[in-house]
Amino acid sequence: MPVKVFGSPASAEVARVLTCLFEKDVEFQLIRVDSFRGPKRLPQYLKLQPHGEAITFEDGNVTLVESRKILRHIADKYKQQGYKDLFGPGALERASIEQWLQTEAHSFDIPSADMVYSLAYLPPDMPLDGRGAGGGLLPAAGMHPSHRQKMEEMLQLFEKSRKDLGKLLDIYDQRLGEEEYLAGSKFTLADLSHLPNADSLAADPRSARLIESRKNVSRWWYTISSHDSWKRVKELQRPPSAEAPF
Amino acid sequence: MPVKVFGSPASAEVARVLTCLFEKDVEFQLIRVDSFRGPKRLPQYLKLQPHGEAITFEDGNVTLVESRKILRHIADKYKQQGYKDLFGPGALERASIEQWLQTEAHSFDIPSADMVYSLAYLPPDMPLDGRGAGGGLLPAAGMHPSHRQKMEEMLQLFEKSRKDLGKLLDIYDQRLGEEEYLAGSKFTLADLSHLPNADSLAADPRSARLIESRKNVSRWWYTISSHDSWKRVKELQRPPSAEAPF
C-alpha cells in the first residue's frame, strides 16, 4: 500500500514532505480536497499558506501530522532508496542535521512565515526602509481606522520578522561560508526543510533581499532550490485556476 | 455538507459533472488522488481519459457513479439556483432534453471516445484520407509485427468511428439548422453532456474536421465551449506537471 499524503501542496508543511518523497523516490498518493462554488469563485488554496495548512501522512500503520517528524520517518524507513545522504551516513552527521532541523523549526519557520504573511497585506509600492513600524509610512488620511490598524500591525510584524530573520541569516551566512550545506558537505533534511518558506521569501523582492544580500546564503539558496524534487513541488503548487481566462 | 466529487477532472465523466456544478452554482468539494513516484514519473492523470475514468458523487445520502444520472440529479435538486434552464422549464422541454441526452450517451459517446483513443496511437503525420484501414497507409517494412497489428487495429477503429460520427453529426447539423441548441432555443444538459468528448475531438486537427466541416455543428460547438463553466473545467484539467521544466 503506497504512502498517502492528505493536504494541499500549497501548504509549507505538505511541500516539505513532498520534496522529501521525491528525493527518496518513494511511491505515494497525494489526496487533495479543493472547494468550489460557482464559476466566479476561486479555489480556497489559491494563495500559498505561509503558516502551513494541515497535513496528514499515512504509511501503513503509521500516521503522522507534523512535517519534520514525517521527514525523519521517510529518511529512516526508506534509507536504502533514492538520495541516500538525506539524514547523513552516520550518527555524527545526524546530530548536525538534527541541530539545523531544529533551528529551522524553532527560529526560521515563524519569522519567515510572519514576513510572508505581513507582505501579503502591505502594498507592493510601500517603502519599507527600516525606519520602524508606522514611521510616517502610512498616509495621514483617507484610510478606514480598522484598515489603518491592520496595516500598522502588519508593518510591525514585518519589521519584527525582518530583524529576527536578519540576525538568524547572519549566522547561516557564516556557517555556509565554512560548509557548502547547513549540516556539512551534503544536501540533507536540514536544507530541505527550509525550502518552502525560503521560496516564499525569495518570491517577493521586498523579502528576497534578506537572501540576496548574503553571499553564502544566496549561493546555498540557488543550489538547493535547483533540485528537481523542489521544482516538481513548485509545479504542483501552481493553482489550476489562477490563470483562468475570465 | 457540501456535494463531494471523487475523481480526476481529466475524466470525461468527471468533467461533465463539474461543468454542471459550475452552471448550477453548487458548492462542492473535488477530491483528487494523484499517484507519484520519484521526480521523473508523471502523474497517472496526465493524459485525458477519453473513455472516462470512474467518478463517485455524494450529495448527502445520495451516492451516484454515472455522470448523466448525476447531471439529472443536480439539475433537479438545485433547480432554483444558478442557470435555471438546464433541464428545461417544463415537461415538454424535458422530453426533448432527455432524448438528446440519450443520443449523446448511446450514439455520440463511444465513437467520439474511440476516435480520440485511436488518434493517440496514430502518428500525427499519417495521412488519414478515408481509403479504409490499412489501405497502403502503413509502411511496408521496419515495424515490429505486434506494433503493426496495434496500428492496424487503431486505423480500423479510427475509420469506423469517423464513419459513425459523420452520420450522426449530419443529423446534428440538420437539427442545429432548425434550433440554436439540441433541445431547442436554450442551452441544456443535452448540450452540456457533449462538452468533454467534443472538446477532445476539437483539440486534434485530424478529428476537428468532423465539427468544422459542418456549419451548424461548428457554430453550436463554438457557443457551448465558450461557457465559463466549461473554461473553468478545462483549467482544472491542466495537469500540474505537464510543463515541468525538467
Number of beta strands of chain A: 4
CATH topology assignment of the largest domain in chain A? Glutathione S-transferase Yfyf (Class Pi), Chain A, domain 2
Strand order in the largest sheet of chain A: 2-1-3-4
Q: Which radius of gyration of chain A do the C-alpha atoms yield?
A: 19 Å
Biggest interface and its residues per chain?
A-B, 34 and 33 residues
Oligomeric status: homodimer
* CATH class call of the largest domain in chain A: Mainly Alpha
Task: Characterise this structure.
- Chain A is of the alpha+beta class.
- Chain A folds into two domains: 3-84 and 233-237, 3-Layer(aba) Sandwich (Glutaredoxin); 91-227, Glutathione S-transferase Yfyf (Class Pi), Chain A, domain 2, CATH 1.20.1050.10.
- In chain A, 52% of the residues lie in helices and 9% in strands.
- Chain A contains nine helices and four strands; from the N terminus they run βαβββαααααααα.
- Chain A has helices at 12-23, 67-77, 91-121, 145-178, 189-192, 195-203, 205-212, 215-224, 228-237, and strands at 3-6, 27-37, 56-59, 62-64.
- A four-stranded mixed sheet of chain A has the order 2-1-3-4, with helices on one face.
- In chain A, α1 (12-23) links the parallel β1 and β2.
- In chain A, α1 (12-23) packs across α9 (228-237).
- The longest helix of chain A has 34 residues, at 145-178.
- Chain A is globular and about 65 Å long.
- Chain A starts with a strand and ends in a 9-residue tail after the last helix.
- Mean pLDDT of chain A is 86; it is low at 39-50 and 241-246.
